[in-house]
Amino acid sequence: MIEQFKEWYINRHAYAKQWKERTGGKVIGTFCTYVPEEILVAANMLPARILGSHEPQDVTEPHIFGMFCPFCRDSLAQGLKGRFNYLDGVVLAHSCIHFRQTFNSWRIHLPVEFAYYIPMPNTAQTPHAPAYHRAEVDKFKKAIEEYAGRPIAEQDLDRGIEILNRNRRLLRKAYEHRKLDNPPLTGEEAMYMAVTSQFIDKEEHSNLLEAVLKELPQRKLPRDAGIRLMAVGSENDDAEFFKMVENVGGTVVIDEQCAGSRYFWNESVPNGDRLAAIANRYLDRPACPVKDYPAHSRFQHVLNLAKDYRAQGAIIMQEKFCDPHEGDNPRLKKYLEENGIPTLSLEFDSTNPLGPFRIRVEAFLETIRGEELF
Amino acid sequence: MAELQEFWRWTEYTWHHPEMDWRKGKRLAAGIDVGSVSSQALILVDGEIYAFSNLRTGSNSPDSAHKAVNGAMKDTGMELSNLKYTVGTGYGRVNIPFANRAITEIACHARGANFMAGPKIRTVLDMGGQDCKAIHCDERGKVSNFLMNDKCAAGTGRGMEVMADLLSIPIKDIGELSYQVDQEPPPVSSTCVVFAKSEALGLMRSGWSKNMVLAAYCSAMAHRVSLLLGRIGVEDQFFITGGIAKNPGIVKRLEKELGIESVKTKYDSQIAGALGAALFADTLLQKGTQ
Q1: In terms of domains, do A210 and A349 share one?
Q2: Among B143, B151, B287, whose Cβ lies nearest the Cβ of A366?
Q3: CB–CB of A279/A137 below 8 Å?
Q4: What is the pTM of this model?
């Protein structure tokens, strides 16, 4: 049953097209993970995160600087290659300048019915952010109402919030199983599970999660968990990498990245003012480095996760040219090591040299594993 | 037409202990290091070095591994079936059909360095054919931390081979000749193999001697490696393994830049990986690991 997540991951475009045919609804492409999806779900639209394909490409050269991150280029390439030709709209809630470029280029070269930029503040910690962002979420809601041709009622928002929250709760429950000595799901499987929630219909995804959660307590994997690892980074859905790591004696038991836990970790807390609840959820969520200043809340969060899931080591997955993460990583590395979590830093491109990565990972595991060779 | 001289070609050889009788030994353990450029096999008899080979890697790992182990066993009467435990290492480590286990060359070089240069070694620099590793280890040669060069093969053995060919200078002479200059020239600006080649050609055209180009290339490589070491820190004692350790043009410049001498031993620095692998094989044999 858990294999369904992988199938969704592989066939995500076919899924979106079928969803559209089946429901007659609109599919809205989302960039990064700060778009308030509650509003889209309240309007019966399907939010589908735009991701790359991890294939070599040569179509983005005229549109994005070479020193912008491979993920933003890979994402735009999918649009330029026509793989997202079913999208009715695209939305970006501001994250980094690289994705803003991707979004703007998309808007120019791949016209859609609805393109919307939410200028979400990066200084999410300032006391002015909640009021500001609530107003922006409200403007976004109005834009969606106008596009959909009907108002979004309060009960629609409640439904949107509950659908998103249920999915988040279930994903966290599934992650709980990764705390076990021998987790009943691999890091690769967990990655498919988490990342598919970003483009599959949330209710359908939640229903499958519920069914999988019933099975997980009985599920035994015919493998030794080996060294428990944490994956830390930006957008890392490189399945081949996780597969390799888990073939050489490790298991990824927890992640801190936007293809995984950062996306679903916290819920919207209903407080009567629904739009404020939604806006605050995105301001309060585990931040990526771009929204994590002046205070660095992220480091403590990463360490807490590592401890809760008993990670014996962390692989810091640096997306090449991702400046926000590059700024964080030297200090994060030091912080984790000072707190007893050894780290391995690797730089990722959209396609990666698995052989050279493999020796680094194996040697890292050997340093953690200890005494058997002596 | 005159035969084309291969200036990059270094001497391949095999060696076995002239007096030791392996038949009297109880533990026959082997390490096979199939690297990107060279392959070594080393056989330990009861923990002592009995034989080894140092050959060029061919187009596939299983063949290179067989060639290396057959080289080490040459004229000894030993056969593959006599080996009780074999550990494979190097880039080809997972493709050695007769190996009982694969261990990374990072662990093996540290273990080999520990045997060759003693338990005081804390920093090992493996300068190989297509990559470069800075390793920290404890008194047993167990790795505590390591760092590898980035994806490209700049500043490695293969780059030196390319330079030997370009300048028509036998590779073993490069180190020596790089000091035969009136004044140490500034390093070439790039150690990317391809760019450095273009830059070397440009320098020759502008009147530089071959030796000056060699000096500039060696110092660029030494500088690049010192940066890698700088990221992890150099703790005394310091030891260099791999083929480039035989090139004084780089070693001396590196030592000068780091302000620390590397430990020199009687062993061939290229066998460190295979030696470490064989030592692990011997340990695993004693532990009865299958």
Answers
A1: yes
A2: B143
A3: yes
A4: 0.93
